[in-house]
Design goal:
The protein has 270 residues and is an all-alpha fold. The chain is 66% helix and 0% strand. The protein has helices at residues 9-16, 22-29, 33-42, 46-60, 74-84, 91-95, 98-112, 119-133, 139-152, 160-184, 188-196, 208-213, 221-237, 249-261, 264-269. This is Transposase and inactivated derivatives, TnpA family.
Length: 270
């Protein structure tokens, strides 16, 4: 399936970028006393201690591992070095040890409970964001909820393109469920009456739907009778009073806005 672009490049960058503000650095990258004890117990040498700590920080936020060809953000490196009382230049010694890096990532996952994004986790996370997608169709909000869910559950983030694809699929499925919910409460007769609104009026060039949407042009008997006829047509359809009770208000308002903009030709093509 081709990737449906629902996020801008800037939005994708913002979703997975490392924090840059001092308060966020402190919030996400302050090592607990228990963290430092684990680092001391499992690592020999300052380079290994620093590398282990940096990988732990990146798995916590933004939720990924630091690859062999990547350098940690300067403020993060500086803050971690201050906590461990290690010189920043030590990082260069760790950066060339790819085997050690992989061993540390495996050990961190084992000790701290981090998991890769497996199919099992995918099923649970998609169920969570599907419920969110029933409330809003804003892709960036769905992606933020998805990423927050993964971080909270210590699940390593997949690629941003995978996140975009999964969110796209969830939004499509949620929209289908919403329309299925709305239409399931209608009888076949009601559906036929609604479909008939897309047809042109007899001896006219205006569809029944556009005719219903017209407002009285003047306060006189002719237009008053026409307005009464419109009301009778709507009453005949007899839509359930609670037809949208199971749909989130934000979603209903969006459907209403889009409906006002669509022509009968557009609706016939749907």
């Amino acid at each position: 399936m081709a990737l449906r672009k629902i996020l801008s490049e800037k939005e994708k960058e913002n979703l997975i970028e490392s924090p840059s503000l001092k308060e966020d650095i402190i919030r996400w990258y302050t090592l607990a006393e228990s963290d430092i004890i684990i680092i001391e117990q499992n690592c020999r040498g300052t380079a290994n201690k620093l590398g282990f700590a940096i990988q732990l920080c990146y798995l916590r936020f933004p939720g990924k591992v630091l690859k062999s060809n990547e350098t940690p953000e300067f403020l993060l490196l500086q803050y971690v070095c201050e906590q461990l009382n290690i010189n920043q230049s030590v990082w260069e010694k760790y950066a060339v040890r790819d085997v050690t890096r992989r061993e540390h990532i495996t050990l961190i996952r084992k000790i701290f409970g981090f998991k890769t994004y497996s199919e099992f986790e995918q099923e649970a996370s998609l169920k969570y964001i599907h419920d969110k997608a029933l409330q809003t169709d804003r892709a960036v909000i769905i992606a933020e909820e998805f990423i927050t869910y993964l971080r909270t559950n210590k699940i390593q983030l997949p690629s941003i393109n995978t996140i975009e694809r999964l969110c796209s699929e969830v939004l499509i499925n949620a929209e289908k469920q919403i329309y299925d919910t709305l239409s399931s409460s209608l009888s076949n007769h009601q559906k036929q009456l609604l479909d008939a609104l897309l047809n042109l009026q007899e001896k006219g060039s205006v569809s029944q739907l556009n005719w219903l949407k017209q407002s009285p042009q003047a306060v006189n008997s002719k237009f008053l009778l026409m307005h009464i006829k419109r009301l009778r047509t709507i009453k005949e359809i007899d839509l359930p009073k609670d037809i949208g009770k199971d749909i989130h208000q934000t979603r209903l308002l969006k459907i209403a806005r889009e409906g006002r903009q669509m022509t009968p030709q557009h609706l016939q093509e749907e």
